[in-house]
Write a structure and sequence with these properties.
Blueprint: H1 3-13, H2 15-26, H3 38-51, E1 55-60, E2 74-81, E3 84-94, E4 113-114, E5 117-119, H4 123-143, E6 148-156, H5 167-172, E7 181-184, E8 192-197, E9 199-208, H6 223-243, E10 260-268, E11 288-297, H7 303-320, E12 326-334, E13 337-338, H8 344-357, E14 362-366, H9 372-377, E15 384-386, E16 401-403, H10 404-422
Parallel strand pairs: 3-6, 3-7, 7-15, 8-14
Antiparallel strand pairs: 1-2, 2-6, 4-5, 5-16, 8-13, 9-11, 9-12, 10-11
Length: about 425
């Protein structure tokens, strides 16, 4: 029996284990924010991976954004060296999940199995992918115990809020300096290889006014009206211009192949009151209004141009609006990244997809960023992709699920990729 068939049989024999592992992970409610139960899930993974012969390390991202004694940012890195020297393949999965939201018909943390699917918050994004990577590694080790090189599996914090307490922290500490190939099992569909992502620039714009009594607004200067003029200028000039910018990056879905801008929030005037306050607001002209913008840009664009477009909008408003004044503050930036299609990890996974599914892999780019940004920018490692089970459109939705057969096939793809990259 050839290695391909033996790997298939090893993974098939682990089907019930894969289901149970995914359920166990879903049942640990690692909600972020605030970053709950990170240590609990790391301890669970620690026990599991120690049994599989990995050496494990639990790492708290002390001092990172979001880390606190109440909600410490815990991560786990597990490492298993082969019988001979060789390269290192690292599977990275984030352990955090977003808020539950409304509209569920199943228990968000129940891990219910129904019609070939496992339901729960994080099932798709991305505890199903984490479970599949563990099963893939264990099946590969059982089939090819004399492999050369090293397998690493990490569970990391805070991807849903930027990844600073997770992959960014590990990259800063040099954990990816010993790695040659990274696979991130994000839910991009089982026959897709995600090469990278668009860029992002977050900024806060503040317009300024003058406070006065609400019955005499002519004695003040309304910052909210100033912000309304900014939004109007964006509608008239910026949004149409962004819609004309197109990329050669294979971004999915189709609408994300253009530049986009989201107005994340606007708040002006007096702060919102505590929930137990039931009185009326006071009568004041707001002297400050803040808007947070989320600009997603293409690999063909320059970050300086992206910033200049926003400044140009604000300056046009200033020219035509007496008393207009503003400040702008950058909150966050990530440059676009895209791994080459002939990179070793891309080629290995592509051949595995074709072998398992009988068709060529699709190559895509994510509309939003994920932890590849830190592996590229801080870890200086380009040979990185996202590949995993799950339907991307289900992420963060009610009744989130992952298909059992999708996980089985993805695990087989990952195991075959390990065989190629580590010379099993």
């Amino acid at each position: 029996m050839d290695t391909r068939a033996r790997l298939h049989d090893e993974i098939a024999a682990r089907r019930e284990d894969l289901i149970a592992l995914t359920q166990d992970l879903i049942r640990i409610p690692t909600l972020n924010p605030p970053g709950a139960n990170y240590r609990e899930i790391c301890d669970y993974l620690d026990r599991r991976l120690l049994r599989a012969g990995f050496h494990t390390e639990l790492i708290r991202a002390e001092g990172a954004i979001g880390d606190s004694d109440k909600h410490p940012r815990w991560n786990i890195v597990a490492r298993r060296e082969g019988e001979a020297p060789g390269q290192c393949v690292h599977f990275n999965s984030h352990i955090d999940v977003v808020e539950v939201g409304h509209g569920w018909t199943t228990d968000p943390f129940g891990g219910e199995v129904k019609d070939g699917r496992i339901y729960g918050r994080g099932a798709c994004d991305m505890k199903g992918g984490l479970a599949a990577s563990i099963i893939a590694a264990e099946a590969f080790i059982a089939t090819c115990p004399d492999y050369a090189g090293t397998i690493e599996i990490s569970g990391t914090a805070d991807e849903e809020s930027g990844g600073f307490g997770g992959v960014a922290y590990l990259a800063e500490k040099g954990y990816f300096a010993r790695v040659q190939h990274v696979i991130i099992p994000e839910p991009l569909n089982k026959d897709r290889i995600c090469l990278g992502h668009r860029g992002v620039w977050w900024a806060e714009v503040e317009t300024k006014g003058e406070i006065a009594h609400g019955s005499m607004p002519f004695l003040g200067d309304c910052a909210v009206r100033h912000m309304g003029a900014v939004v109007a200028e964006m509608e008239d000039s910026l949004f149409p211009a962004l819609a004309q910018k197109r990329t050669e990056m294979p971004v999915v879905p189709e609408g994300a192949r253009q530049s986009t801008l989201n107005i994340n929030s606007i708040h002006g005037g007096e702060p919102e009151q505590e929930v137990d306050y039931t009185g009326m607001p006071s009568a004041c002209v707001p002297d400050r209004c803040r808007m947070v913008i989320d600009r997603r840009f293409l690999i063909e664009e320059n970050i300086d141009e992206v910033q200049a477009e926003i400044h140009a909008v604000l300056e046009r408003v200033r020219e035509g609006r007496p008393g207009f004044d503003y400040e702008i503050k950058e909150l966050f930036r990530v440059l676009p990244t895209m791994t080459e299609r002939d990179a070793p990890v891309v080629s290995a996974v592509a051949r595995a997809v074709e072998s398992v599914m009988g068709r060529e892999a699709d190559y895509v780019v994510s509309p939003g960023t994920y932890d590849q940004k830190h592996i590229d920018r801080i870890g200086r490692l380009k040979n990185c992709i996202a590949y995993g089970p799950g339907v991307l459109d289900l992420a963060h939705k009610p009744d989130e699920w992952v298909g059992i057969e999708d996980m089985m096939q993805s695990a087989e793809v990952m195991a075959l990729a390990l065989h190629e990259l580590l010379g099993g």
